[in-house]
Write a structure and sequence with these properties.
single chain, about 230 residues, alpha/beta, five-stranded mixed beta sheet, three-stranded parallel beta sheet, globular
Length: about 230
């Protein structure tokens, strides 16, 4: 398959064998994003960890200062006494038994599911559906809580969870190409600082091995780890 005209033009703007500061990379995203839609801007962070070792699994949550630019659809699986709290906080779908049945039938048109500890027992059978899609609520990410309103509003404001994949890489969206470059810098910095704080004590050698920034259907640029 040949390289598209837009990809060729974008590639010309990137200097070969060059690493960029976060601010330089963010500015480049504004120039190389050639899609007709508002491209997602993403980071790929390679860590010096072995994800197969439980004590080297890197997972966390971060609230991006300027959000991701995506309208996050939130399902609140709650009992009747918590429904109004979820709705007031901005949850897109609120309910319990009816939505559990929809999920069992394969409906997953949501980005995040927030629920209560007492409801988790009902979701065990949905692990095979929700797990692969990253939708299973988890106390560690704040999506299993009695503070439903707070959890929903945080997700709506830009709270995201991330974890290292089997290759030792964290992939995360940090905004849109339409964002001011300063907002992309703020979001990228917040994510990277959070990842640095989560360095496992069992991780030896170089922890932050490489960081690349890219936008949808664009070439990636490498960020100088020393600038982080």
């Amino acid at each position: 398959m040949g390289i598209s005209k837009n990809m060729k033009e974008a590639t010309k703007l990137i200097k070969k064998n060059t690493v960029y500061s976060i601010s330089e990379a963010a500015s480049l995203m504004k120039s190389i994003s050639k899609t007709k839609f508002d491209s997602s801007v993403d980071l790929a962070v390679k860590l010096g960890v072995d994800p197969k070792q439980a004590n080297q699994m890197v997972r966390g949550v971060v609230t991006l200062p300027h959000g991701t630019g995506k309208d996050v659809k939130v399902l609140a699986l709650v009992t009747a006494d918590k429904e109004s709290e979820a709705k007031d906080a901005g949850a897109d779908y609120v309910g319990l038994e009816d939505y559990i049945e929809k999920l069992k039938e394969g409906w997953t048109d949501v980005d995040v599911i927030v629920t209560m500890p007492s409801v988790m027992g009902k979701l065990g059978a949905l692990g095979r559906i929700l797990g692969p899609r990253g939708l299973m609520p988890n106390p560690k990410t704040g999506t299993v809580t009695m503070e439903i309103g707070k959890a929903v509003s945080e997700v709506k404001r830009g709270k995201i969870d991330f974890k290292v994949d089997k290759f030792g890489i964290i992939h995360c969206a940090i905004g849109r190409a339409s964002f001011d470059s300063s907002k992309l810098v703020d979001n990228a910095t917040e994510l990277l600082q959070t990842i640095l704080k989560l360095k496992p004590s069992s991780s030896k050698g170089t922890y932050l091995q490489s960081v690349y920034m890219s936008s949808t259907m664009s070439p990636s640029v490498r960020i100088d780890e020393k600038s982080i």
